[in-house]
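Can you give me the bound-state structure? Components:
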Amino acid sequence: MSSTTVMVRRNVTHTVRNPVAIFNAVLFPIVMMLIFVYVFGDAFSVGDDYIDYATPGMLMMALSYGLSATATAVNSDMTKGIINRFKVMDVSRSAVLTGHVVSTVVRTTVALAAILGVAFLLGFRPAASFAQWLAVIGVLLLAVLAVSWLTIAMGLAAKTPESAGFATVPLIMLPFLSSAIVPAEKMGPGARQFAQYQPFTPIIETLRGLFDGSPSTSHAIAAVAWCVGIALVGYLWARKTFNKRG
Amino acid sequence: MSATPATVPGMTQLAISANGLRKAYGERVVLDGIDVNVRAGTVFSLLGPNGAGKTTTVNILTTLLRADAGTISVAGHDIDSDTKPVRAAIGVTGQFASVDDLLTGAENLQLMADLQRLGRSESKRVVGELLERFDLAEAANKLTTTYSGGMRRKLDLAMTLVGRPRVIFLDEPTTGLDPRSRRTMWSIVRELVADGMTIFLTTQYLEEADQLADRVAVLDQGRIVAEGTPAELKRMVPGGHIRLRFADAARLAAAARVLAGSTPDEEELSLRVPGDSGIRALRGLLERLDEYAIEVEEFSVHTPDLDDVFLSLTGQKATEVNR
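Here's the bound-state model for the whole set.
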């Protein structure tokens, strides 16, 4: 068994034993989805069945909600002394961080699957072909990978586990200020521009296009560019902070 | 991986050899050129107050921190050019128990066994043995958050032992433990030495160094101010003293007049008489008091311990620096 596998297993065990993390990552996005689609849904007129409009945004929301658990876990590892044990045992340093990335991807995949399941129950009827479904999965995985590295960097940079968890709040807010819930054109000035140019909007628009069976190339290019950029910044920042921490 | 080359040091060889260790953070010098030599199979104790540089020394010797200068070899390997075999040979238990709080005791040990790539049956055996040996079998399947401080420290040490290290570093292993857990920890350390391991121990408790160590080095402000066996260090401070307490100031003053070299403490009504505590000296002292008919309320003999060594050594150092 490689060190990375051992680390992934350890992190997965942590997640399963932490009810707050599970609630935040899996149940809370479902609650949000029920509120927005089932409770408010009829009040939004988006020229589409609201569940079909909202599902891509809800997926992004599910993706970002679990991140505070990752940031907290990374920071706990660094500040509670166990990292020194791993270092002295010659566990490769990247195994510790890769373990967090992989377990975040696993946890987020569960959350995304749960959201999709609920979406279908609420009447979600995508027109995507098999290839488009594969593209949906690809875009989501790329997005998870990107925000995971960014979150890990924030977790490493924070002084305490509490502040690490708090550092992910902007990522949690981003879906609200994107085209997730209502189209950007319907927002007030300022918010509209922000929503149009922030990374989550092209990702959500790409998913929406794929689900509709009519993907938009320009959104897809912007989405991939954002994801690769965020992943790169997060990875380099994480590596630098990890090495600086000794 | 587990079959380490035949460089097992014999009894007379050095398990740790460090010369001229220096470490500074900007202007602040933490270690000012210290030498540490530890023979294989012995206990070496680095004794010093908080902030003396003990943890920095441990971090350097365990490859966690790079020294600014100095040559170090641990378990026969150079620490800079040969880091991997050094790491394979050492185990560290830090000042703050580094156990995983969301895992049980058994899972913590299993995690170590997995990282050491022990096979399934081998790791099961090792984990079971360690749980038995450290008296943790009953709590094996409970989360470590439910453990007491002493149990956590024991688990921490057990985790260190999974990799069968030859040199063990214990950074303040009993700080914050109650007296009973401290004694348990001491007997564990003695067992490890009996098994042939080398122990490098830091502590701020003189009694601990006195109880466990073959050699003690006193670290103060980044320098080793004394080194030797506990007995040698005790010999470094001038002999003990006898303390006499009196019922009133008049008797104290009378006694101070007749006993040359004594120092009275008027508030405590006590007199400190330097000198050795041999029977002859004591008899002479009592006869003299008798001769002048001075009644003594309380009488105690104070033999020097490492506390005296510590105070006299670090105290001297402090005045030198202030000058």
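A couple of observations. Confidence is low (pLDDT under 50) at residues 1-11, 316-323 of chain B. Chain B is about 40% helix and 25% strand.
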